[in-house]
Amino acid sequence: MSPLLSADEHELVVELMNIGIGRAANALSQMVQDEVLLSVPQLQFLHPTEASGCFCHYMPGALAGVMQDFSGFMTGRAALLFPEERSLELVRAILGEDMSIGEISELEQETLAELGNILLNNCLATLANLLNQQIQTDLPQIFNVDPPHLLNRLTLTEDQDNTSFIMLVQIKFSLRERDLEGYLAFVIDVRSADMFVAALQEYLAELTVR
């Protein structure tokens, strides 16, 4: 639990992210022409000093990822992460079984960028819309990294001095007979956290008067 959030606020973020991830799953279902099941989000708020150990625990192997910067009522960096050795399998599920490994490899980065853009934007846009806020996202970037170095990739350059906290959302993808553990990570600039918390409090206050 983050010291920045009350129990009600923490529960609200989980609920809103669950809605966003659900919408992302529907979008992914259309891409793979198959039902996609996602686990309930496991949400943790961590300071950078403790986040690296958490990343290594949940994601021990090499990772493939897509990240996007975002700004608005909260500012930071979002990332979709999954095991590097399963990335081609995920791309194959999206592009179709009849494509060769060579064809899949050529389209891997473009496909993963599109996937990350859809999933991350669904989550961020849903969070912003439900809270009646505005958010903008940059173009997605593809990267590969080992868990010990993941934090450096996700932390904003100007925030390397522990001025961010990590909102880590762990989800599990299930595509028919394929199982792929994926992760959504959000690095939120602490300078925008006050606006983020204020939006949560305003939403909760409106619920009490309805």
TrEMBL record:
This is Chemotaxis protein CheC. The lineage of its organism: Bacteria, Pseudomonadati, Pseudomonadota, Gammaproteobacteria, Aeromonadales. Residues 14-43 form the CheC-like protein domain. The keyword Hydrolase applies. It comes from the Bacteria. Keywords: Chemotaxis, Hydrolase. It comes from Oceanisphaera ostreae. InterPro entries: CheC, CheC-like_sf, CheZ_family_phosphatases. Pfam families: CheC (PF04509).
